[in-house]
C-alpha cells in the first residue's frame, strides 16, 4: 500500500517538476522579447500545444472598460482589433458559465466563439488583459491543476506583456517624435525657401507647391486679405471653368473667409452655406493663415490623390505652414512698402532739389529799394516759386507763383514756368501780353487739372513805377507811406486753364517807405491744432503794425507769427513770402 502512495507522490512530483520546467522555459522565451506579438504567440501556443486546446485568444486592456483582441488561434482572424466591453472586473480564473450577470454582453460574445476559460493576466499594478481558451480536444474540461498551471503562466507573462506594451507605446511616441522632427525639418526647409524671397507671388508659388507635395494633392488655392477684403491670391490645379472662376470670386464666399479661425473640413454639414461652395468645387480642407490673432489668408486644398483622409497632425502641419507663409507675405508686403516709400522719398528729394534751384540764391543790392524773400517747405514738396530778376532796362521783376499739386510734377511745372518767363522777359515791354504767352505755353504743356497762380510785377528803378499782372494769385498788399493798404488784383485767369486768355495790368507809383508784400496761400491757410486758418486779417494787421522796420525784418516777423500760430502743427503747404520796400 505504501509503495502505491509513494508512486503517486512521485508521479505528482514529476508532474510538478515538468510544469515548473515548462514555466521556466516559457518564462525565458517570454522575457527574451519586447515584441508584443511574439510574446502573445508564445503565451497562447504553450497551453494550446501542451493541453490540446483547439481555440484561444488574448485580449489586452485598451481604455476604460474596453479590451481589444490582439491575437487569435483557431478563431476567425477578423476578430483581431475588435473592442470588447467588460463591465465587471474579473481578477481570478473564470469559467464562462461562472461570469456574473453584469458581464452578460461579454459572456454572450464568449458563447458565440466557444471560449470556456478566462484567465486574467495580472501584473502588480493592474489587469493587463486575459488569455481566453476553448475546451480541450474532445471537449474535456480543464482540471484544477491545469488552471493553476495556466494562472502561473499568465502571471509570468504579465510582466513581459507590460514591458512590451510600454515598449510599443515608446515606439509609437518615437514614431510620432520622428514624424514631428521630420515635419519641423520640412517646415524649416520650406521656411528658408519662403524667406529667401521678398516677392509675394514667389512666396505663394513656394507655399502651394510645398503643400501639394506634402499632402499629395492636385488642387490648392490661397485667398488673401487686402484692404479689408479677401480675394483669390493664387490657384494651382486643373483648369478652372469660367463658372468656377466666378464662383471663387463671389462676394458671399469672400466675406465668409474672415470667419475661418481654425481648420475646417469643408464636407462638414455645420459649416456656413457660403463655405460649402468650396466643397462643391472639390476642395476638402480650409486652413486659416493667421497673423497677430487675425485671419489674413485662407488655404483651401483638394482631396489626396490616394483618397486618404487628412490626419490631425497633417492639419496641424498645414496650420503652422500657413502661419509661417503669412509672416513671409507680410515681410514681402512691408519690403514693397519700404521700397515704395524710399522711391517716394527719392522723388521728393528730387523735387526739393528742383524747388531749391528755382529760388534765388541771393537778392540784388539796389540804391532805390530793398528786396527780401523766403520759402519754407512743408512736409511735402509743393509748387511754390518766387524769384527776383534784374532786367536789362533798369527794371527788376518780382515773381510769386503757386503750382497745383505736390511732388516732382509740381516742381517740374514750376521749372517750366520759370523757363517760360525768363525766355520772354527781354522781348516784351507789355507784361500783360507776356503773361498771355506764358499762359499759352503752360496750357500746351499740362493737363486740364494742372494750373498755376502767378503774380508778376516789374519795377522801373528810374521812375519807381510798379506794373503788375495777377493771374489768379493771392493779391499782394501795397502799403503806402501813410499806412494805407490796397490789394494788387488786376490780371486774369490762372495760368494753364485755357489758351489765348487776355490779361490786364495795373501800374502804381511807389514812394519812399512804400512796401509791397507778396505771399502764397501757405501763409494765410496755415493751420493750428484747432484746424483754424491763419487768415488774411491777421496778416493785414501784422503788416499795419510793423511799417517802420526794414523789409527783411518784416518778412521774418510774418514768418514767426505764422509759426507761432501753428504751434508746431505740421503744415500741408509751403510758406512763401517776398517783400519790396522803397528806400
Topology:
Elements: H1 2-31, H2 36-50, E1 56-63, E2 66-73, E3 83-85, E4 94-95, H3 104-113, E5 117-122, E6 127-133, H4 144-194, H5 200-215, E7 220-226, E8 229-236, H6 242-248, H7 251-256, E9 264-265, H8 276-280, E10 283-291, E11 294-302, H9 312-358, E12 369-376, E13 383-390, E14 395-403, H10 407-425, H11 431-445, E15 452-460, E16 465-471, E17 477-479, E18 485-487, E19 491-492, E20 506-509, E21 515-519, H12 521-524, H13 536-544, H14 551-566, E22 575-582
Structure in a nutshell:
With 583 residues, the chain is α+β, with helices and mostly antiparallel strands. Helix content is 43%, strand content 23%. The chain has helices at residues 2-31, 36-50, 104-113, 144-194, 200-215, 242-248, 251-256, 276-280, 312-358, 407-425, 431-445, 521-524, 536-544, 551-566, and strands at 56-63, 66-73, 83-85, 94-95, 117-122, 127-133, 220-226, 229-236, 264-265, 283-291, 294-302, 369-376, 383-390, 395-403, 452-460, 465-471, 477-479, 485-487, 491-492, 506-509, 515-519, 575-582.
Major pleated sheet: 6 strands, antiparallel
> Largest beta sheet: what is the strand line-up?
3-2-1-6-5-4
| CATH architectural designation of the largest domain | 4-Layer Sandwich
Given helix and strand content, the structural type is alpha+beta
Can you count the beta strands? 22
Radius of gyration: 49 Å
CATH 4th-level superfamily of the largest domain: PPM-type phosphatase domain
Question: Which strand-content bin applies to the residues?
Answer: 15-25%
Helix content: 40-55%
CATH topology of the largest domain: Phosphatase 2c, domain 1
- Please state the overall shape, judged from the principal axes of the Cα atoms: rod-shaped
pLDDT < 50 stretches: none
Count of helical regions? 14
Average of pLDDT: 86
The CATH C-level name of the largest domain is Alpha Beta
How many individual domains? 3
Distance between the termini: 162 Å
Amino acid at each position: 500500500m505504501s509503495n502505491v502512495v509513494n508512486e503517486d507522490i512521485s508521479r505528482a512530483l514529476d508532474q510538478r517538476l515538468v510544469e515548473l520546467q515548462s514555466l521556466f522555459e516559457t518564462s525565458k522565451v517570454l522575457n527574451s522579447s519586447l515584441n508584443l506579438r511574439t510574446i502573445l504567440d508564445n503565451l497562447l501556443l504553450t497551453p494550446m500545444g501542451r493541453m490540446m486546446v483547439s481555440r484561444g485568444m488574448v485580449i489586452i486592456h485598451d481604455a476604460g472598460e474596453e479590451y481589444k483582441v490582439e491575437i487569435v488561434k483557431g478563431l476567425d482572424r477578423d476578430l483581431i482589433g475588435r473592442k470588447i466591453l467588460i463591465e465587471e472586473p474579473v481578477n481570478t480564473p473564470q469559467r464562462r458559465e461562472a461570469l456574473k450577470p453584469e458581464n452578460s454582453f461579454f459572456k454572450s460574445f464568449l458563447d458565440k466563439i466557444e471560449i470556456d476559460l478566462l484567465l486574467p493576466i495580472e501584473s502588480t499594478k493592474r489587469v493587463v488583459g486575459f488569455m481566453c481558451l476553448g475546451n480541450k480536444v474532445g471537449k474535456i474540461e480543464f482540471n484544477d491543476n491545469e488552471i493553476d498551471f495556466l494562472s502561473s503562466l499568465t502571471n509570468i507573462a504579465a510582466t513581459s506583456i507590460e514591458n512590451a506594451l510600454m515598449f510599443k507605446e515608446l515606439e509609437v511616441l518615437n514614431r510620432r517624435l520622428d514624424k514631428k522632427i521630420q515635419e519641423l525639418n520640412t517646415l524649416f526647409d520650406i521656411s528658408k525657401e519662403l524667406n529667401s524671397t521678398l516677392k509675394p507671388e514667389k512666396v505663394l508659388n513656394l507655399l502651394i507647391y510645398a503643400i501639394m507635395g506634402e499632402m499629395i494633392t492636385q488642387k490648392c488655392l490661397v485667398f488673401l486679405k487686402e484692404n479689408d477684403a479677401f480675394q483669390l491670391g493664387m490657384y494651382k490645379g486643373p483648369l478652372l471653368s469660367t463658372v468656377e472662376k466666378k464662383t471663387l470670386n463671389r462676394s458671399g464666399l469672400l466675406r465668409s473667409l474672415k470667419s475661418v479661425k481654425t481648420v475646417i473640413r469643408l464636407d462638414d454639414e455645420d459649416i456656413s452655406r457660403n463655405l460649402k461652395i468650396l466643397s462643391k468645387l472639390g476642395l476638402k480642407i480650409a486652413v486659416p493663415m493667421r497673423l497677430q490673432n487675425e485671419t489674413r489668408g485662407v488655404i483651401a486644398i483638394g482631396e489626396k490623390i490616394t483618397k486618404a483622409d487628412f490626419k490631425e497632425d497633417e492639419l496641424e502641419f498645414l496650420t503652422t505652414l500657413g502661419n509661417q507663409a503669412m509672416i513671409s507675405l507680410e515681410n514681402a508686403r512691408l519690403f514693397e512698402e519700404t521700397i515704395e516709400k524710399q522711391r517716394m522719398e527719392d522723388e521728393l528729394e528730387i523735387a526739393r532739389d528742383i524747388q531749391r534751384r528755382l529760388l534765388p540764391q541771393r537778392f540784388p543790392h539796389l540804391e532805390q529799394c530793398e528786396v527780401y524773400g523766403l520759402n519754407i517747405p512743408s512736409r511735402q514738396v509743393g509748387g511754390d516759386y518766387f524769384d527776383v530778376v534784374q532786367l536789362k532796362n533798369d527794371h527788376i521783376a518780382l515773381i510769386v507763383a503757386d503750382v497745383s499739386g505736390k511732388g516732382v510734377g509740381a516742381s517740374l511745372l514750376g521749372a517750366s514756368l520759370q523757363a517760360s518767363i525768363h525766355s520772354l522777359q527781354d522781348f516784351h515791354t507789355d507784361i500783360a501780353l507776356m503773361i498771355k504767352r506764358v499762359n499759352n505755353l503752360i496750357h500746351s504743356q499740362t493737363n486740364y487739372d494742372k494750373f498755376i497762380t502767378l503774380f508778376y510785377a516789374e519795377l522801373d528803378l528810374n521812375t519807381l513805377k510798379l506794373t503788375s499782372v495777377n493771374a489768379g494769385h493771392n493779391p499782394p498788399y501795397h502799403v503806402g507811406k501813410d499806412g494805407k493798404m490796397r490789394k494788387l488784383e488786376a490780371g486774369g485767369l490762372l495760368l494753364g486753364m485755357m489758351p489765348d486768355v487776355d490779361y490786364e495790368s495795373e501800374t502804381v507809383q511807389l514812394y519812399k517807405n512804400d512796401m509791397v508784400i507778396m505771399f502764397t496761400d501757405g501763409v494765410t491757410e496755415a493751420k493750428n491744432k484747432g484746424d483754424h486758418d491763419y487768415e488774411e486779417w491777421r496778416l493785414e494787421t501784422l503788416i499795419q503794425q510793423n511799417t517802420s522796420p526794414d523789409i527783411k525784418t518784416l518778412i521774418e516777423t510774418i514768418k514767426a507769427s505764422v509759426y507761432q500760430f501753428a504751434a508746431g502743427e505740421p503744415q500741408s503747404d509751403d510758406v512763401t513770402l517776398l517783400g519790396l520796400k522803397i528806400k
